[in-house]
């Protein structure tokens, strides 16, 4: 008896790498991806929770707006965090 061949149909997924800023606040963490149109934010009590929440929010944003969710097709090569002082 010949083994039967099973062909699985899988949807090919294109992966896009996004840079994410994660901020630590006194009451938890906030994370937001760079390079998307609009505001996409995740939050959590821990770094990992905020990152997971931001990923979930990002996926929903992309599912809703498709390729229009991105500011540009070009990737952000690097992201920097800098400090500056302003007069109040």
Describe the protein.
The structure is a single chain. With 88 residues, the chain is of the alpha+beta class. It has a domain at 20-69. The chain is 22% helix and 17% strand. It has 1 helix and 3 strands, in the order E-E-E-H. A 3-stranded antiparallel sheet has the order 1-2-3. Strand 1 and strand 2 (28-33) form a beta hairpin. The mean pLDDT is 88.
Q: In sequence order, what are the helices and strands, one letter per element?
A: EEEH
Shape category: globular
Count of discrete alpha- or pi-helical segments spanning 4 or more residues: 1
Q: Strand portion, in percent? A: 15-25%
Instruction: Specify Rg, calculated over alpha carbons.
Output: 19 Å
Which structural class matches the secondary elements? alpha+beta
Widest sheet, order of strands:
1-2-3
Biggest beta sheet attributes: 3 strands, antiparallel
Helix content: 10-25%
pLDDT below 50 for ≥5 consecutive residues: which ranges?
A: none
In whole angstroms, the N-to-C terminal distance is 82 Å
